[in-house]
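RETRY 2/3 - previous attempt timed out on the joint model. Re-submitting the same 225-residue input unchanged.
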Amino acid sequence: DAKTTQPTSMDCAEGRAANLPCNHSTISGNEYVYWYRQIHSQGPQYIIHGLKNNETNEMASLIITEDRKSSTLILPHATLRDTAVYYCIVRDLQGAQKLVFGQGTRLTINP
Amino acid sequence: EAQVTQNPRYLITVTGKKLTVTCSQNMNHEYMSWYRQDPGLGLRQIYYSMNVEVTDKGDVPEGYKVSRKEKRNFPLILESPSPNQTSLYFCASRSTGGANEKLFFGSGTQLSVL
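RETRY 2/3 succeeded.
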């Protein structure tokens, strides 16, 4: 079972920051938070991951709360091409050899 | 270019006719995996492989076989396909050993079993 809770859908205006929340209240100390996205029926694409510090890369920023029970993925300047389903996943690197994809958040970027 | 290549992209077949979906990666990844995606059920893991000649069942292995004779290839075999195996299939690979273990996915194979 997925260990995360995400809103089913969100909308954002083109050019604005898209903030996607994720709740992972049962996360353990050695579990990482990963974000992937899936555009239409393409293969999921890795975005970013983190353990406890905030992370930033060329695609997005990841903000993890101090208690690590939730996180937010930020797309700073959303474009129409960012319309996709976004998956938040927690994974223990020593644990099961799979990523459990929940239902994700369907993000729609509006012109 | 680093990639995971699946073939075919689309496949229509009939019940009971054996088929193979190929998957190949050019990143020298040890780990490879197959997922299926169905509406309302999300992505579910079928089989995975930690390295050559090492395979293990995922969450929904019934009706599928895999093999890992070479590091780069991980074919998915349906010996006797049934309509409930109609689905969108994804192959994925990653390196092992560390936090930076990003999964790379193929473009998908849409399978219809009539």
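Chain B has a mean pLDDT of 93. Closing ticket.
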